[in-house]
Amino acid sequence: MESVGPQLATVQARPRRGLANFVRLDTFSLTMKPSLLLVSLLLTLGDHSSTAAESAKDAALRSGGAPSAATALTSRDPGGAGHRITLTNGVARVPVIVVRGTPYQMGWQLGRLMRDEIQQLAPAVVAGFKQELKVTDETLDLAWATTAGYTDARVQQQLVGLAEGSGQPVRLIQHIHCLPLLMPYSCSSIAAWGDSTEDGHLYQTRNLDWSLKAGAHEFPVLVVYLPTEGHAHVTPSFAGFIGAHCGMNAVGIVLSEIGDASAKEMPYNLHAPHFTAWFRTLLYDADSLGETLELFRRVPPTKRYHFVFGDGRADKKAVKIRAATGGGRARPEIAVWGDNDPTDELAPKVLSCAIYHDEGRGVFPNLQAQRGKLNGEKLIALANQIPIKGGNVMNAVFDGTALRVWVSYAGGGQEAYQRPYVFLDLATLDADADGRPDLGR
User: Fold this and answer.
1) What's the whole-number mean pLDDT along residues 387-393?
2) Of 37, 11, 323, which is closest to residue 150 (Cα–Cα)?
3) What number is the average pLDDT over the span 200-222?
4) What is the span of the domain harbouring residue 400?
């Protein structure tokens, strides 16, 4: 086990690296009145602009933007490119949106291509959660203002593009990015590689166990980003959401997350980016597992999480991370485990060339029995074994070596583990049908 203390010095700019888009990251927890405790759950995206062409968006980012200001540019195509196809497998149908350009251009094209779904989901889901949780727009605005300034500028620029391309107020799109933190959720992940898999590839799973009542699973999307700078990457997502709760980039970095913190651990650290935002930074910029960990260490945790980071091409392995802050801790606590680590919290149930975090749902015997035979199909079966039934929104299996992904979303009255998986080969994807793989350009 590697124990890692916080490394929170001001980050110096360097070419193409997303850390240049962060401001100083200070660990700081607010003591709040009871009426504001809910704010500590709302860890959203910060704001900075990095190019002259997109600096006009800064005012909307800071204030949430009045609807008129937020939608003023929706009719003007800012450039870039976007294409939409649909993956099918039996009853499963999942749109794939491929966008190319600057962050703002990619956001605008994504908003344009998902406009109908965003218009159906975003206002309804925000209104529903506000009513259920007794949260006002002003509370959400305060959360946004508190966490603003700590997150990659590229994510901020894309968020404004998404709002304008979809015709929705920037403020509403900001608020929808708060919602994943308003409900408790608990997920799972497995990674296997080398001698554990039949072909030596790195396979990694991610179960998203959250709120089926929110209805986000009825508006699924796989987004493939082809940025002008940084690595191409794919994120399984939902209409109107540009954060990454998991994902894979074009050099084989795979990211998964498992939420651990309960409401008892509030107040959370608000002076940090939410993981779905800095996952996008890692997908943009990380070339290897070592660099992924380097970038990760520079961001303080907002609360208690587990992460699984895999690398299917350079370092060809994965690690499991436990990161925690708050809950009476004097300082953030971070632990990193590799495979077959006797200090792993799940030891002695550990294996070589495999790691997992299933929160006690019993995956180890089958993982051990199939060691050396694991492939995409078998990882799907293992992922289907360990969700929290009653809240299994989405499952994904990534092949970080061959750049493939299998995804299942809940729908039609069934949870994700009960549904067919659709398949995407990122290396051969040709969404614009020009005869050339989109990734190779």
Assistant:
1) 93
2) 11
3) 93
4) 2-10+76-102+184-435
Residue 425 resides in a domain: yes
Q: Please report whether residue 424 resides in a domain.
A: yes
If you average pLDDT over every residue of the chain, what do you get?
A: 83
Q: What are phi and psi of 21, to 5 degrees?
A: -95, 0
Q: Where in 166-249 does DSSP place strands (E)?
A: 189-192, 203-209, 220-227, 233-238, 247-249
Q: Which of 29-43, 216-230, 259-273 has the weakest average pLDDT?
A: 29-43
Please check whether residue 265 lies inside any domain of the structure.
yes
Distance CA 247, CA 390 (A): 24
C-alpha span between 16 and 8 (Å, rounded): 20
The CATH number that applies at residue 276 is: 3.60.60.10
Whole-angstrom Cα distance, residue 139 to residue 134? 10
Task: Give the side-chain half-sphere CA count within 13 A for 150.
Answer: 29
**The pairing of beta strand 333-337 with beta strand 2-4:** antiparallel
Whole-number pLDDT of residue 75: 61
Average confidence (pLDDT) over 205-217: 90
pLDDT surpassing 70 at residue 68: no
Residue for token pair 């015997």:
365
Q: How many domains does the chain have?
A: 1
Q: Is 374 helix (H, G, I), strand (E, B) or coil?
A: strand
Question: Residues 155, 273, 129, 358: is their CA dihedral positive or negative?
Answer: positive
Question: pTM, whole model, 2 decimals?
Answer: 0.86
The answer as to whether 335 is a domain residue is yes
